[in-house]
Amino acid sequence: MSNDDKELTDCEYILLCVLNAFFALTAVVLNSVTIHAIRKTSSASLPKNLRVLLLNLAFSDLSVGLVVQPIYIIHLTFLFESQEGDNLHIMDTLTWVIYIGIAFVCASILGVLALIVDRFLAVYLHLRYQEIVTPKRVVFILILSWVISTIASLFWIGQEYHDFLVIFINVFLATCLTTIALLQFKIYSIVRRHKFQIRAQQVQGSKQTEDETRATFERQKSSVRSAFYIYLLLLACYLPNIFITSLHEMLGKNFQILDDYTLTLVFVNSCLNPLIYCWKLRHVRRTIRMILRNIFVRVTMVQAAVEIES
Known about the structure:
Elements: H1 10-40, H2 48-81, H3 88-125, H4 129-132, H5 135-156, H6 162-204, H7 207-251, H8 256-280, H9 282-309
Helix pairs in contact: 1-2, 1-8, 1-9, 2-3, 2-5, 2-8, 3-5, 3-6, 3-7, 6-7, 7-8, 8-9
């Protein structure tokens, strides 16, 4: 960040710090519970590939709340407290540390892309899916996405190429979002075709084939819908920042206030994804409910024991 950050008022600095602190804490709590719930959910309820992809996405979201947002809050705090010409070396250090933290955001986007591609292959390949999309291949793709994100964040440190890298990152994000949109359209088309096949089999009376198609379709429906809602959240949280940074590069004007608020909105995405898992994935929701119930029972028992001793 540059000295243009001084365009923010004191109240806006404080508001941004409070918002980021709240959403960081929320992201850490929700994603921690979600990771534990996904691990506890049985393999019969949650396929292995989908489990790995959801764990990867939840971990990247957890990292945003645990690493990126606290660093961003520290950065804002130093900017708020510093005077003109003071603490510049500290601000510069924090700047490139923040850019390294962007690796987690990139990994989160690539995690969503991997999830959408997996759901597309599940409905497109149908019975051949388990043979072609193996857990080892999924893990390899996810490791590759983290390597790409790390390399991108390291290139981001180069200040002399800052403008080019901003454009590159925006093009990269726009490409990911467009690819996901196209895949979602294909998934929708395939799902509609499956519905028509089920209806045709009902008319023809092929009971066994109908039951197999319906069972496969029902297993995939909740995960496909979850992936779609995750994509909608991604659009809502990322598009404003992409638009503002692109506008800054094209017009050469400073939109630092809007940039800070839209960047905070990008971070908010990390605490909203777990709500999608709880809402659309029934087995994960049930496991989370059991975890919270056990925690509540333990707290109640401890309080009761303390009251008895006192």
